[in-house]
Task: structure prediction
Amino acid sequence: MEKIIYLYISKKNPFVWLSALCLLASAAARVILFSQMEQAGLWLQMILPGLASVLLAVMCLLSGEERLYKTAIPVWILGLCYAWWPLHTCDVAVFMGAILFCIAYTAIIDGRWHRFGLLPLYLAALCGIAFTYRRLPDYLWITGLLILLPAIRIHKDGSYHPTWGDRSEGRRIRSMPPMALVEPYLMPNRTGSSNLFAEAIEITQVEEYIRCKRREGMTGVGITHVLIAAYVRMIAKYPAINRFIAGQKIYSRGNDIAMCMTVKKELSLSAPDTVIKVHFSPHDTIEDVFKKFNAAVDEAKTTPLDSGMDNIAAVLAYIPGPLLKLAVWLLRALDYFGLLPAFLLEVSPFHGTVFFTSMASLGIRPVFHHLYDFGTIPVFCAFGKKRRVEEPVNGEIVKRKYLDVTFNLDDRICDGFYYASALKYLMRILSHPEMLDLPPEQVEQDIP
Result:
């Protein structure tokens, strides 16, 4: 991983409270001084900068350890408000100064530049205010940022911490080749970016492995558990498969592998179905996968249908058509900017690493299931019933069993060579399923 500095502040530090007090005073001063202005001036001098100052103060007090150095949105709001009037009066120097201030601030909180760059940056902004605006609210908010400097600390645990541009469910990949970064804009939908792949897996070794595990006490283990465990182990070696596209940006889920699957509460035509989401780790063995998956299935079968995503869908179903379209548009907009609440992401069947579906219980071969344009799931895997084939081997007819598996893959998260290497490794695991008994010797980490 590229060396990145992760900054934070603690509300136990008195400088944080003094800084928040200055920022709130700046917002209050704007209300007093600019409340009588015309509409354009009201927005640019009072409403937007005031809200940005309040937001920054709240972030200092409530989420400085997680969010203050993850987003530069409040500072960008202030900077753009300062840049508007110089642009309107053709004062290019002041306009460029405001924009460069925001860019430099973002680079520092992103961990790319050293935090000591904040002091000269704030002093330069203070000089700019003294020579241009010379208003009390402007002095107060830059003073608030200056007072905050002694409270800034660096995370020294060596682990990754969310920073600017990350989402709650994944970190943004920043070192992709330029063409890979542009692709999500050229191909904005998953349905237009998907590749289809089919494979017939000879499952003699898998079935023998399943019988062995059942004799060892894992009653109920089946082909589904082995496939999921093999997929988890594949991601341990090829972590780019655990990426996703959101807001036309590429993200990595890291060590969180979120598998979604539709299950029926009973095996009948009239029985309702629901979607389970199970979180796995790249370190999981077949036993870990077996326990986590079965626990999720048991919970789904014993829980009323009016829970989780089913409950949310039921509420949406009562909304009239035009308003429902508006509600869905709002959900898409929130998802685009990474603002969906965590509880929605957790229950959503459209957000995850992979969606598995089994056609075996239906007695048919697998379909090529479509990807969802809503959400983040980049891979859909379907598998069907086992089939027997008679094949000639050294002049003799040998009976073998095969399992047909299909994949629908989002082409934008990694290149074709990487996909091919990962899927070949998946087939190798299924040829030697005993690899799943122990954790992987090494878990690869995705690129920065």
The longest strand covers residues 379-393. The chain has a mean pLDDT of 89.
